Amino acid sequence: MYIKEIKLKNFRNYNEEKIELNEKTNIIYGDNAQGKTNIIEAIYLSSLGKSFRTKNEKELIKFNENKAEIEVKYQKKDREGKVKIIIENRKELYLNDIKMKKLSDILGNIYVVIFSPENINILNDDPSKRRKFLDIMISQIKPMYAHILNQYKKVLEQKNNYIKQIKFEGKLKQNLDIWDEQLAEYSIKINEYRKIFIEKLNKKIEKIHFDATNEKIEIKYKTDVIEKEKYLNRIKENRENDIRKGYSTIGVHRDDFEIFIKNKDVSIYGSQGQKRTSIISLKLAEAEVIYEEKQEFPIILLDDFMSELDEKRIKGFIENIQNNQVLITCTKKIEFDEKKCKFFKIENAKIY
User: Fold this and answer.
1) Average pLDDT for residues 311-322, to the nearest whole number?
2) Which helix (H) or strand (E) holds 239?
3) N- to C-terminal Cα separation, the chain
4) Extended strands (E) in 119-246
5) Distance between CA atoms of residues 240 and 236, nearest Å
6) E strand or H helix at 182, and its extent?
């Protein structure tokens, strides 16, 4: 699949712009703070319905304006489509000009894999960043997963609020059974999705990484979730600990994964080079899993990810994803075959 056109109105630092993209490689260059990443962000929003840069959506509206609009037209093998997002007092989502009721309704229409500078630190960061990676990938392929995950988070928030009431107001502990039963149901489903997709990633990443480095790589999933009754027993056994801490300490919201090269944890024993190639391999594996599941090549978003690579390596990397539409942001124009790509210079939120 590929994106044909992007329209932005009062989005971030843009007034009103229209961008017609090449089906394959698009290089967006210019000085820092001109608006390059904002284009990547707009595409990501059209795919996942939310930003990868902020949780405060008011930040997406241009300063001194009341409303931002994003419109993205895309082409798949069998059809074309359009996603439109309006951000004002609340966010409105439209698919082919029909208003959608919930965020999960637009998932699975535009598939993206993003590489950004923040990805490099995913192995050393908080486990929530690694869970987020899994959740984004699975949600694109299986929109029902996003719905189940959101339900889990709502119930978890309710339970945590009640735990605080037990701790500070002396509420009845046995009432937690209501939330625990719901959390167990959702946890088992979420856990099943994640395990399946970790297995799929492992099958892809093994070859990708070995071809590039001659090193064996493996992803290992860490979870507290087991068979439902045993899981419920563990939650109850840990109840006093939860009340002392004031929140739920067991569940899929604590899951994690680790990457091993030659049976050693990369986050602890890996060099900077091994960490970088591990993440690149992980993202390329993600792209292959999406294609295998949906028979559509996802759009590759490279947001300043290649800044530490020379042009030879950049070109080699692009050759390895030649079936995908690619958008690259960088500070300088890359010397590339102009027959195979389209260049966009960004200056003060204007596209040339």
Assistant:
1) 67
2) helix 239-245
3) 25
4) 217-222
5) 8
6) helix 176-213
CA–CA distance, 179 with 161 (Å, rounded to integer): 11
Those residues with Cβ within 8 angstroms of residue 40's Cβ, 6 or more apart along the chain or in another chain: 114, 116, 301, 303, 327, 329
Six token digits for residue 5:
């056109």
Structure tokens at 287: 């792209």
**SS percent in the chain: helix, strand, coil, step 5:** 45, 25, 30
Q: DSSP secondary-structure letter at 129? A: H
The secondary structure of 291-321, three-state, reads HHHHCCCCEEEEECCCCCCCHHHHHHHHHCC
What confidence tens digit (pLDDT) does each residue in 83-97 have?
999 999 899 999 999
One-letter amino acid at 148 equals I
Q: Taking the mean position of all CA atoms in its chain, how far away is CA 277?
A: 19
The dihedral through the CA atoms of 42, 43, 46, 50 has a sign that is negative
pTM over 0.85: yes
What's the confidence (pLDDT) of residue 277?
A: 84
d(CA 9, CA 52): 19
Contact by Cβ (8 Å): 190, 221: no
Q: Are 175 and 217 in contact (CB under 8 A)?
A: no
Q: Please tell me the predicted confidence (pLDDT) of residue 314.
A: 64
The single residue listed with the structure tokens 């919930």 is 102
pLDDT at res. 134: 93
For the chain, give the mean pLDDT: 91
Which single residue is written with the structure tokens 């946890």? 187
Sole residue written with tokens 């929530």 = 128
Cα–Cα distance between 216 and 204 in angstroms, integer?
12
Angle between helical axes of 272-294 and 176-213 (0-180°, round to 10):
110
